[in-house]
Amino acid sequence: MRRLPPLAAVRVFEAAARHENFTSAAEELGMSQAAVSYQVRALEEALGLPLFLRERGRVVLTETGSQLAGQVTAAFDTLDDAFGRIRDDDAATLRISAYTSFANRWLATRIGSFQLQHPDLAVRLDADNRLTDFARDDVDVAIRVGLGGAPGMHERFLMRVLYAPMASPAFIEEYGPFDTPERIAGSRLLNPDDRWWRRWFAEQGVTDPVIPPVGVRLDSQTAEGLAAIAGQGIAMLDPVFWEEELRDGRLIRLGDTIASRLSIWLVCPEHKRNLPRIKAFRDWIGDEVARHPIAGALLPPPA
User: Fold this and answer.
1) Opening angle at CA 25, ends 20 and 29, nearest 5
2) Which residues pair with 126 in a beta bridge?
3) Residue 166: which H helix or E strand, with range?
4) Do domains 7-88 and 91-303 have the same CATH topology?
5) Which fold has domain 7-88?
6) Are the CB atoms for 164 and 246 separated by under 8 Å?
7) pLDDT tens digits for 168-219?
8) Cα gap 218→31, rounded to integer Å
9) Strands 258-269 and 153-167, bridge-based pairing
10) Domain coordinates of the chain in residue numbers?
């Protein structure tokens, strides 16, 4: 017969240990902070050992708590995987969360081919810039921008983040020429306070560009690109996402393409990496990226 402490208290401890914050655990579990504290104390009393040190309004795992947390999280991952397989039998759905620019400008135009290759698998794509919490969000895989190295996650490098200034032929004809970075800086920039502008000018050796203090500000790269196509100004865009518009001349690149230190990654919990639906998507998107015509996008991530 198993001698287990109350599982409700164990579940609360696992969330509190993962966040090392009772408030965040309470938000994840949909309960009050006081209830989290009560359940943790109940578990400590049952074990006869402290699991957290309470000091100056914060909590820190004790050595015992840290050892226990890793094993408990692994056990919950195993349970999640077991029940997930049952859920998979009932509804074969791949849930993808991708940041908005990648979802709208790259993945949405290709994801249909993945579903055709896997007709028994339903696909749900959510465009969302929020950091995915796999313990709480109904998501199988996420596609995010970063440096990589997320703890407990399986990551697959997809491509580097690239950026270059672009404008429509009509805008260039009316307001050009844009043959120097200084001429670009003095023109009508879309999202002029975007950090990518400063970084691009710095790469061109212009450390203090004179940028007009006012301009149009848009909430996504998709909106910026469409505004640039409509002749509204110069946008800083990733050429991978605007390949077709560059090819047919609706957009023209005005300067060098810069490779950021940031990269685009496919991310999922380590213990779920070999679920059939996730493996199928990981293999498919890897093949799609490998076929992409812009070779610069396939540079390996920086060390």
Assistant:
1) 160
2) 97
3) strand 153-167
4) no
5) Arc Repressor Mutant, subunit A (1.10.10)
6) no
7) 999 999 998 999 999 999 899 999 888 899 899 999 998 888 777 667 788 8
8) 37
9) antiparallel
10) 7-88, 91-303
pLDDT band at residue 46, thresholds of 50, 70 and 90? confident
Per-residue confidence (pLDDT) for residue 296, from 0 to 100: 41
Cα–Cα distances (Å) from 253 to 97, 163, 169, 245, in that order, read 30, 10, 10, 10
Q: Which of 86-95, 245-254, 283-292 has the highest mean pLDDT?
A: 245-254
Q: Is residue 242 predicted with pLDDT exceeding 90?
A: yes
Name, in order, each residue with C-beta under 8 angstroms of 51's C-beta and a sequence gap of 6 or more: 13, 17, 40, 43, 44, 61, 62, 64, 65, 68
The arrangement of secondary structure in 91-303, i.e. its CATH architecture, is 3-Layer(aba) Sandwich (3.40)
Looking at residue 98, its pLDDT comes to 94
Question: Which residues are bridge partners to 95 per DSSP?
Answer: 124
Name the token pair of 13.
């401890």
What is the predicted pLDDT for the residue at 294? 65
Helix, strand or coil, per DSSP, at residue 301:
coil
